[in-house]
Structures are given as structure tokens and as C-alpha cells.
Amino acid sequence: METLFIGKSLHFLHEVESTNTYAMNLLRNVNPIEGTVIHTDHQTKGKGQRGAVWASKMGQNVTMSVILKPTFLIQNRSFYLSKIAALALYDVLTDIDAKGQYDIKIKWPNDILINQKKIAGILIENNLSDKSFQYSVIGIGFNVNQTEFDGLLNATSLSFAFGKNFERLSVMMHICAKLEKWYLKLKEGRMDLIDETYLKCLLGLNQLLDFEDSNGYRFAAIPKSVTTQGKLILLMPDNEERDFDIKELKFLLGS
Ligand code: BTN
Q1: pLDDT value at 7 more than 60
Q2: Is 123 in the pocket of ligand 1 (CB under 6 A)?
Q3: Looking at ligand 1, which atom is closest to the CA of residue 140?
Q4: Which residue's alpha carbon is at the smallest distance from atom 2 of ligand 1?
Q5: Global confidence as pTM
Q6: Nearest to 120 by CA among 133, 134, 108, 110
Q7: Is residue 174 part of a domain?
Q8: Number of folded domains in the chain?
Q9: Would you place residue 191 in the very low, low, confident or very high pLDDT band (cuts 50, 70, 90)?
Q10: Minimal-distance CA residue to ligand 1 atom 7
């Protein structure tokens, strides 16, 4: 699989605290080219969303960060980076599931699910100056050959889902190719296509789902869309629309 720039510079590390932290340090200290990829067999302090720990067994998964320099993107459009990263992983999975036998979805904001279980997560860290982006680190944890998840009931992997082992390097290159495809669309200004495709892949769009807000209040509501800033718009029990950011809302279908 060929790419123009993502993965042309590759750092393979046996072990590191976090590939995202490593990438941020590279950006502070040297000037890595856009598209630089850092991959490791093991993270000692892997970071997940909402300050969680990202645990991944040594040598079994794809644990990587991609350095992008989206200087063309205005600051309040950062959610497009989340969208394109999620779409890239979605594409990788649908390619692997060539017969279309699995239910593949993006769980807002950017978890990737296969048959309702989480197979991959994304953590993006940005650096902004004035109103535009200097750089962005797209951290991706993609479960490949791990089959035991130590009590994480809602986790899965390629191997678990498809019943065979996968070559991690080719999964990583596949991710690079799809991320590049969507990043170039973003650069071309194809927000319409990105929005439309993201919504099409979104778990539970226009369906009644159970949620819990940050006060512990549980309710059923219908996801209708996502704001430009990346908030989820829900049609609430009182028939009003309300938007929520990631800290304000939990899906009640595992996580
Ligand atoms: C999530 O909570 O779903 C996001 C998980 C992101 C994990 C990846 S693994 C590579 C990169 N380095 C990190 O420390 N985190 C991301």
C-alpha cells in the first residue's frame, strides 16, 4: 500500500511511555516532517480519552501516532481531525470485512466498534498558535491480535472478530493509507463529504438510545447530528434538541 507522505518517516520503538507524548516531544525538539509515524510494541503510560489509561498487550496491537501539520485548518474546526481519523479506521475495517458481514460503526466522538464492541480508539493532541494549527498528533490504538482484555467486557480485536491473526505492519500501513486519503480530502475542503460520511457511519443515528449525563441522570434520546465543534446533538425526551460535549455524556451500552 503506497502513501505520499504518511509513514514515509517511521520510528519503530520497542517500548515508550506513550507514542503521543513521544511525538509531542519530537515536535518540540526537532522538526519531524509531516506524516511522521511513531509505532511501539508497548506503552508504559498509554493515554486514553477523558484522562483514562490505554492498556494494550505487548507486541499484539497497533499502537501509533501520526504527526500532521494542518496549518490550513482554522482553530474551531479541530473536530474534522477526529472525523477523518475515525473514517480512516472505519475504512480499514470495512476493507478487511470484504464480505460486509460485520456491523461496523463509529461511536461518537471517535471510537470504532465492530459488532457493538470497541476495536480501536483515537486520541488527538493539538498545538495551536493564534487561530490556526501548528501541528496535531493523531494517536491510534487498534486492537489486532490481542484476545484477552482483562475484564474489559466491551473490547475486541481483529483476531477476536475474524478468527485469525493479522500482520500488524500491514494493518499499520493500511491505516496510514486511509488516513492520508481522508486528510487530503480535508485539505481539499471536502467538508461536505466528510460530514456526510461520518454521519452515515455513526452508531445510533436517528435511533432511541440510553444515555447518562454528567449529573448521573439517565435518559433515552435520539442522536440527530454533530455540531461543527463536535458536540453530539440529541433529541431529548421533552422533544427539544440539546448538544453535549464528550465530558457531559455517556452512552449506556458499554464503553
Ligand atoms: C481512547 O480512549 O479510546 C483513545 C485511545 C488512544 C490510544 C492511542 S495508543 C497510541 C497513542 N498513544 C497514546 O498514549 N494514546 C494513543
Answers
A1: yes
A2: yes
A3: 8
A4: 48
A5: 0.96
A6: 110
A7: yes
A8: 2
A9: very high
A10: 141
Q: Predicted confidence band at 5 (pLDDT cuts at 50, 70, 90)?
A: very high
Residue 62 CA to ligand 1 centre (angstroms) = 10
Q: Does the CB atom of residue 255 touch ligand 1 within 6 A?
A: no
For residues 115 and 226, state if they share a domain.
no
Q: Quick one: which of 102, 148, 141, 107 has its CA closest to 124?
A: 141
Three cell numbers, residue 52 = 483514562
Q: What is the DSSP letter of 33?
A: P
Is the CB of residue 23 below 6 angstroms from any atom belonging to ligand 1? no
> Residue 63's domain is classified under what CATH number?
3.30.930.10
pLDDT confidence tier of residue 221, bands split at 50, 70 and 90: very high
Query: 129: domain range?
Result: 10-201
With the CA atoms of 154, 63, 178 and 80 taken in that order, what torsion angle do they form, in degrees rounded to the nearest 10? 70
Whether ligand 1 lies within 6 angstroms of the CB of 61 is answered as no
H-assigned helices in 14-112: 19-29, 79-96
Cα(238) to centroid of ligand 1, in Å?
Answer: 36
Q: Look at residue 1 in the predicted model and tell me its pLDDT.
A: 65
